[in-house]
Write a structure and sequence with these properties.
The chain has 260 residues and is an alpha/beta fold. The protein has helices at 40-44, 68-82, 93-104, 130-139, 143-153, 159-166, 171-176, 180-183, 194-197, 214-226, 242-245, 247-258; strands at 2-5, 11-18, 22-26, 48-52, 86-91, 108-114, 204-209, 230-235. 40% of the residues lie in helices and 18% in strands.
Length: 260
Amino acid sequence: MDFVTSEDGTPIAFERSGSGPPLVLVHGSTADHTRWAGILPELESRFTVLAMDRRGRGDSGDAAIYSLEREYEDVSAVIEAAGRDVCLLGHSFGALCAMEAALRADNLKQLVLYEPAFPVGGNPLYPPDLPDRLNAILNTGDRDAMLVAFFKEAVGAPDAQIEALRADPSWAGRVAAAHTALRELADGDYVFEPDRFHPMTVPTLLLVGENSPKELTAPAKALNDALPDSFIVTLKGQGHVAMTTAPRLFLDPVLEFLAP
C-alpha cells in the first residue's frame, strides 16, 4: 500500500496497480479498496489505478472527530498524488466525497459518479430512527446483522443484492469496519447547493440503477441538472451495486466514457 497525508494529518492508504493514465477509485459506505476486486483486472489493463481506503477502514488512519469535510480532503489528497489528467470514480457515499473533491481539484480530466447519496427536495435520505436501530444491533456484537440491516434500510438493497455482497471479497473488511457505517449516515445531513456546481466543467458520467429507490437516483438527476457537462446512464435491471451484480454492464459505459 502507498500512503498520502490528508490535510488534518491522517494517513490515507491506497493501492496502486496497473498502467496507463491515473484513475482514482473511491468506495462507498462500509467498504474498503477491496470493493473493486471484481472489476480491477480490466481497469488495471487500461489505467494506473489508485484504489483508496477511506478513513477509518482498511489501512487508512482515522481521527477522533469525524466530519464529511475531512473525507473530501482525503480524496483530494489522493487525486493530488495521482498526477495530472486524473480520472475519478466514486460510488455512493464515496461518490458524494468524489463530487466535493472535484470542486477542489485542478488536475481532473473526467469524473464518474455512481448514485451519489444526499437528500433532494427536502425528502430525508433515511428514516429518522435508523441510526438508533442500527446502533442497537451493533451493540449486540452481531456486525454481520448490522450490515445486512444497513443495506436493507439505508440502501434499499433486496436480498439477492445483499447475498452477492456477502460473497464479495470486500465483505470481511465491511464487517471489520461496520461501526463506521453509523457515522456515514452523515450524508443524510448534506445540503446540496446547485450553484456551487455550475462552474465545474469536468466531463461527468452519472450512473443510476434502474431498480434503485428514488432516494438513490434523485441525487444524480439533481446533480446532472446543475453540471454544465454531464449525462446519465441507467443500468438496466440493476440497483445500487452493479459492479458486483453485473460487472460487465457497469464497466461498459465507464470504459467507453473514459476511453482516450
